[in-house]
């Protein structure tokens, strides 16, 4: 898939009727999803195409609340975890579908230095700062800036984070644009600007189960591919040690389609023991700086396939290890270990503390961009 693929989404116009034309244009519908206890109205925008795909985005956390796609027989199911109503999104929940900022993933002890100055971020995960700190972008009310229908249906949301919020320097203005086309591709483009040097790493934290979020099935029989020859092992706090370790001959080798459950219980693998399963960053085998495939999941039973494309260097694969049966989600389904997986394209975790991981720095005058794509296909039986 080329970067321009979505921009030129072709609407195959059935020459004859006007009806066919409008049926094939993707649509965006805006409505109220709920109200906060403080009386703020939280809107949602639902993007729908003519191929049976529907995506609902909330102004709260720029969350993907629903993402429904056809299986190989055309049967449509919602494939992301989350809640039916607003209230549970406002409380403590594990980032279902959320836009993550200012820094996706962990920063060791919440500490980093920039231009010789030490910063302390808020600590919210053991001794670490995770996904932006105590109140990250996932728990902010974003502003809906623009909604469009047409060959692509889209919504653009923004959130401006004040200087010093959660310990991060600079006023950061973040934008998220979701675009759905007629090829069952959902593009997410994150951008950010700042008024002081800072760090940034934005991604989406959807939990996928291609069997259907209501199916009650585990993801363990689904086939995962991650085109990466190395990954970044962690310490017990899930902070990368700085090593980039070869996946060859280990449970981390997903270069060929592999059942997620095939090796997840291997207690000889210290890294799986530390994380209670997979919760690691893979170093993608990338070429160039454009979009490339970062992960592919296939559910052999339904034939649903998800490809995650991104222009970022890393892919966090999290096998839902902390889903422990305490959360009841959409359709009153209990979420347990393995109920879903997250695939989060991103900069490597804790990049600001590892010079060999590159840079997460953003300066005034620059624009941070992360282009990601969820591409849904079906496989033959
Ligand atoms: C990320 C982290 C996991 C976990 C989840 C949310 O994927 O890597 O360790 O914190 O978010 O529960």
Word description of this protein:
With 381 residues, the chain is mainly beta. It has one domain (27-378): Beta-galactosidase, Chain A, domain 5, CATH 2.70.98. The chain contains three helices and 30 strands. It has helices at 18-24, 87-90, 270-275, and strands spanning 27-35, 41-48, 54-58, 64-70, 76-78, 98-100, 106-107, 111-114, 117-120, 129-130, 143-148, 153-161, 172-180, 185-194, 198-199, 203-205, 207-208, 223-225, 228-232, 245-246, 258-259, 279-284, 292-298, 304-310, 314-318, 327-328, 334-335, 341-346, 361-362, 368-378. The strands form eight sheets. The protein has a nine-stranded antiparallel beta sheet with strand order 11-12-13-14-30-24-23-18-21, with no helix packed on it. A six-stranded antiparallel beta sheet has the order 17-28-25-22-19-20, with no helix packed on it. A hairpin with a 5-residue loop joins strand 4 (64-70) and strand 5. It is globular and about 55 Å long. It starts with 17 loop residues before the first helix and ends with a strand. Mean pLDDT is 94; it is low at 1-22. The protein binds alpha-D-galactopyranose (GLA). Alpha-D-galactopyranose is lined by residues 94-95, 105, 130, 238, 279, 316, 318, 322, 342.
């Amino acid at each position: 898939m080329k970067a321009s693929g979505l921009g030129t989404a072709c609407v195959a116009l059935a020459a004859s009727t006007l009806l066919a034309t409008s049926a094939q244009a993707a649509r965006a519908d805006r409505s109220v999803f709920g109200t906060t206890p403080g009386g703020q109205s939280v809107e949602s925008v639902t993007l729908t195409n003519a191929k049976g795909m529907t995506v609902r985005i909330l102004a709260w956390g720029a969350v993907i609340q629903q993402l429904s796609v056809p299986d190989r027989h055309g049967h449509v199911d919602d494939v992301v975890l989350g809640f039916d109503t607003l209230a549970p999104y406002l409380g403590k929940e594990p980032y279902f579908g959320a836009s993550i900022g200012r820094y996706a993933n962990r920063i060791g002890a919440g500490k980093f230095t920039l231009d010789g100055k030490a910063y302390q971020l808020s600590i919210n995960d053991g001794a670490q700062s995770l996904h932006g700190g105590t109140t990250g972008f996932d728990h902010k009310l974003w502003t809906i800036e623009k909604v469009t229908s047409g060959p692509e249906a889209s919504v653009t949301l923004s959130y401006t984070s004040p200087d010093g919020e959660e310990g991060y320097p600079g006023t950061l203005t973040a934008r998220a644009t979701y675009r759905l086309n007629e090829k069952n591709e959902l593009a997410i483009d994150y951008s950010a600007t700042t008024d002081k040097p800072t760090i940034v790493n934005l991604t989406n934290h959807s939990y996928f189960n291609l069997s259907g979020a209501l199916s009650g099935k585990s993801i363990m029989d689904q086939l995962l591919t991650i085109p990466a020859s190395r990954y970044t092992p962690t310490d017990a706090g899930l902070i990368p040690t700085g090593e980039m370790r070869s996946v060859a001959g280990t449970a981390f080798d997903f270069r060929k389609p592999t059942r997620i459950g095939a090796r997840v219980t291997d207690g000889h693998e210290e890294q799986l023991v530390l994380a209670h399963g997979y919760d690691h960053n893979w170093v993608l085998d990338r070429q160039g700086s454009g979009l490339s495939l970062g992960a592919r999941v296939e559910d052999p039973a339904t034939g649903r396939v998800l490809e995650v494309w991104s222009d970022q260097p890393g892919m966090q694969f999290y096998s839902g290890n902390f889903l422990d049966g305490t959360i009841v989600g959409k359709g009153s389904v209990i979420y347990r270990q393995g109920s879903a997986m997250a695939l989060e394209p991103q900069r490597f975790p804790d990049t600001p503390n590892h010079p060999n991981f590159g840079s997460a720095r953003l300066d005034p005058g620059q624009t941070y961009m992360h282009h990601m794509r969820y591409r849904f296909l079906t496989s033959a039986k």
